[in-house]
Each structure stands twice: as C-alpha cells, then as structure tokens.
Specification:
The chain has 134 residues and is of the alpha+beta class. Helix content is 27%, strand content 28%. The protein is globular, with a radius of gyration of 16 Å.
C-alpha cells in the first residue's frame, strides 16, 4: 500500500507522555512487519495510524492525505527501563485535532492490540544464549 501524506506547520506543539506498553507495542508491530512503516486502522474513530521509526501520524478518513496529528521526537534516552513512560512531542495540524487527542490515547492502543492479536508470527522462535553464571 502506498500513501502520500501532506502536512503544514503545526498550529500547536506540546510535550506529552505515552505509557510504556503503548510505545513498546507500536515498535513491536513495526519490527514484526519487516517494513518501513505499519498501518493501524482505528475503526472506532475512522482514523488511520501510520507508525514508522521516527514518528506516529494520524489521518482522518474524511481527509485521507492530510496529517491531523503527529507524535514525534520520542525521548527514548530519558527512559531508564522499558516499563517507564516515554515523553514525546505532539504536533497538531488542524483545529479538530486538538479535540481528539484524549480519544486517540485510549483508542489507538486498543487498535494495536487487535492488530497484534491477528498477526501471525511465521518465523520459528530462537533462544539466545547469554553469557553469565549458571
């Protein structure tokens, strides 16, 4: 699937935090896909999330080529453990996007969980040896 997205300068940019499990699941889906990006449909909102290595963008079905919100500049280096929340910059591109952030924070994780539950892992599992005391 190919998708061309457009965005202007954001009308607002603010720092937010994302729970660790949401951030980790987004990157797990990306790695599992083996592609440069993953498309996650958020059916309850009629939105599409596009996850890549640098950001997560959200597109409304009514304006499919225009980015509504982007979650960018994840502050990975500030985490001390994988279970700590992660800071990021939220860029809002339309007045409507300011009103949907809270709903995205609850619906996006559900959509990713649905997607993760449907994915098949084709590769066999491997046990990695770690040197250390036995």
């Amino acid at each position: 699937m190919e998708l061309t997205l457009y965005r202007e300068e954001p009308i607002l940019r603010e720092t937010r935090h994302l729970p660790a499990d949401v951030y980790n699941l987004a990157h797990l889906l990306l790695v599992r896909s083996g592609k440069p990006c993953v498309f996650v449909p958020i059916r309850s909102m009629q939105y599409l999330a596009v996850i890549d290595r640098e950001e997560i963008v959200f597109v409304d079905r009514e304006l499919p080529s225009r980015v509504q919100i982007a979650w960018q500049a994840f502050h990975r280096q500030e985490r001390n453990a994988l279970d700590e929340r992660i800071g990021f910059d939220a860029a809002f591109y339309t007045p409507e996007s300011l009103q949907i952030m809270a709903r995205l924070m609850s619906e996006f994780p559900k959509a990713m969980q649905d997607m993760a539950g449907k994915e098949r892992i084709e590769a066999p599992a491997a046990v990695l040896p770690f040197p250390g005391k036995c």
